Amino acid sequence: MFSTSKPRQLCGALLALAATALALPCAAQWKWRDAQGHIQYSDRPPPNEVRDRDILTRPAAAPAAQRPAPGASAAAGAPSGVASAPTSDPAIEARKRQIQAAQDQGKRDEDARVARQKVENCARAKEYARTVESGQRITRTNEKGEREFLDDAQRAREAARAREIIASDCR
User: Fold this and answer.
1) Is residue 154 within 8 Å of residue 147, measured between CB atoms?
2) Could you tell me what percentage of the chain is helix, strand and coil, using 3-state DSSP and rounding each to the nearest 5?
3) Which of 29, 65, 36, 60 is nearest to 50 (CA)?
4) Residues 30-40: tens digit of each pLDDT
5) What's the rounded Cα separation, in Å, for the pair 27 and 23?
6) CB–CB of 155/138 below 8 Å?
7) Which distant-in-sequence residues (6+ apart) come within 8 Å of 170 by Cβ?
8) Fewer CB within 10 Å: C terminus or N terminus of the chain?
9) Residue 6, by phi and psi: left (phi above 0), alpha (psi -120 to 50) or beta?
10) What residues contact 128, with CB distance under 8 A and at least 6 apart?
11) According to the model, what pLDDT value does residue 77 have?
């Protein structure tokens, strides 16, 4: 008597083989080594910075001439010094502009934070310089937890340090 599992296995294997054959054109067809030595796979050609000798696999329908030569301009017929119109998708260009705007805003926020910090440091240093130069006794806590008073040499060093901070942060 025949077992029904053999035809099912054969049918399943043929179905898997057919699915694999249909998926091959969709598979990554380019394989190259990037600048860090990592292997990259893609269905698109590698960036122009990748040398031809680092391209490990090309699709059968893509000769070496399909990739533009490194350093070649996007508009080969355009005179040098003339910017060519972007050939990318407008949505991609808009997204790039959004990313750039977000980065610019982040930089402005960081610059504002640094400026606020400098203003605070300036005010603190001016107050400390007034305190040190006022002549009133200043104490510090040493590593044993004891209070000790600053002598004239320590007071002069602290005043000089406060003036340096004022010179750097109060511009």
Assistant:
1) no
2) 55, 10, 35
3) 36
4) 898 988 889 99
5) 6
6) yes
7) 118, 122, 125, 126
8) N
9) alpha
10) 158, 162
11) 43
Residue found under tokens 């934070």: 113
Q: Are 59 and 32 in contact (CB under 8 A)?
A: no
Structure tokens at 5: 């599992």
Phi, psi of 139 (to 5 degrees): -115, 155
Task: Give me the residue label for tokens 């600048």.
Answer: 35
The residue length of the chain stands at 171
Instruction: State both tokens at 167.
Output: 């010179």
CA dihedral 142, 143, 145, 149 (to 10 degrees): -10
Predicted TM-score of the model (pTM): 0.40
Regions of the chain with pLDDT less than 50: 1, 71-86
CA 50 to chain centre: 20
Contacts with 78 (C-beta within 8 Å, 6 or more apart), sequence order: 84
